[in-house]
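We include the entry.

. . .
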Amino acid sequence: MTTTLVFDVNETMLDLAALDQHFERTFGDTRVRREWFALVLRNALTMTIIGDYSDFTAIAGASLDMVAKARGVTMSPDHRALILRQMTALPPHADVPESLQRLQDAGLCLVALTNSPPEVANKQLGNAGLAPHFDHILSVHAVGRLKPHPDVYRHAAAAIGASLEEMMMVAAHDWDIAGAMAVGMKGAYVLRPGMVRNPLFSEPTLTGETMTEIADTILAWL
């Protein structure tokens, strides 16, 4: 029986589209924001595979520098700092606050598990107004590995005193779901616009196009 829901933060709950205006000003194209964050994830996954670790904010900054260099753009230090700073002030997707409230009201344990360092994670969820919904806000920093490394999910279970079998990972990234399910957790895949599941990964326990659909299904199970 699933009693603990573990939520990814960036893109799953928080809307990175709020950064588009800054990418438009710096690069002249809002689509560069998606290019940049895909590179952030690629670099994070590569570091995980080779057994290395860097602060996720540092990876985001390095990836921003890489995009600027690849595009031949001279990025001012102020614009660079602004984009990274705005990562702590992202709004939630519209379907998130009510869904979390419903799940919380049902008595489920809600946990945030993010690649962001602890101080960033707390700022992100606090500024978005989501922090009160969570029993625990966990960062991979305590493990020194980035998701989807197995140790991250095992550490989360140990930190909250739950078994992996009673936990469900909720994320908009198929690799996050795959990592969680590989160690025994269930997985709920939020198909945010533009997201496509890798068919080589295990089928998620449930899939929904919105957080509302995910919450509806979980509450129906209860």
